[in-house]
Amino acid sequence: MDDTKDLKDSKKLISDIQAQYPRFSKGQKLIAQYILSNYDKVAFMTACKLGDTVGVSESTVVRFANALGYSGYPKLQAALQELIKNKLTTVQRVEMANEYRDDYTILNKVLKSDMDNIRGTLEEIDKKAFEDSANRLLKAKKIYILGMRSSFAIAQYLGFYLDIILDNVHIIRMDMGDAFEQIVRIGEDDVLIAVSFPRYSKKSYQIVSFAKEKGTHIISLTDSLFAPVASIADNTLLVKSNMASFVDSLVPALSIANALIIAVGMKEKEDIKQHFDDLEQIWDKYSVYE
């Protein structure tokens, strides 16, 4: 089974479990009952942990995932994560982290999780969407970059470096007046990059919808095809952002931002070389750096 089908099927996962329940074996029924009552916890359990919790073998858990039509337990787990990604409260996320026994365990788990997320992003990202995004940025009359709450860190980083390469970049800021006032002149020759991660901001979706109505090309940098901004984007750059705890992993998003900056920069190599020559002279004259 391909990953796209697994992703789409997550919306009806709970109803599928309920419908198939009478046909499950005794052990599978125990798993089904636990998932229906605790799917937010199961989403972050290994197959072994889930088996131990309900009193069945790990192989029974794997067969349960197969019975639901998934190619393996990780695909079932991913579907559960899609279901809860935008529903978890901050308190629930903190509770998910109670297995972190000490500081080194935290360091180890978080760094390994980030590495897994980057690896997964590289394997699954739409290469054509990435290439088209870089080309669209070069052709754009004006580039708007949007990111709310924690996503603003990625938007600001992306905007900072794109602004060095290009001279038509505007970061939408919440401390600079209403967001709609900043994009009121947005049009079909422009590009809007929307960075959006759970819990998804309603305001982001409203701004992207407004830009879409104006005919603007939308590039979304997000973690799911179910993300509100992805549903109306022209190009979606999907990154893995599995939660280690109450803090989302933005490391893969930063890596994609880096790649996008370099891809645009290499297409403008001669222009940015002159630009950096000019900057070096300014930095030297005014002693900007040690």
From TrEMBL:
The reply to whether DNA-binding figures as a keyword in the UniProt entry is yes
Domain HTH rpiR-type residue range list? 11-87
PROSITE patterns, per this entry? HTH_RPIR, SIS
| A family per Pfam | SIS
Q: Which CDD domains match?
A: SIS_RpiR (cd05013)
The record's InterPro entries line, in alphabetical order, gives: Homeodomain-like_sf (IPR009057), HTH_RpiR (IPR000281), RpiR-like (IPR047640), RpiR-like_SIS (IPR035472), SIS_dom (IPR001347), SIS_dom_sf (IPR046348), WH-like_DNA-bd_sf (IPR036388)
> Transcription: is it a keyword of this entry?
yes
List, for all copies, the residue spans of the domain called SIS.
133-271
SUPFAM superfamilies per UniProt:
Homeodomain-like, SIS domain
| Protein name from the UniProt record | MurR/RpiR family transcriptional regulator
Keyword list (alphabetical) reads:
DNA-binding, Transcription, Transcription regulation
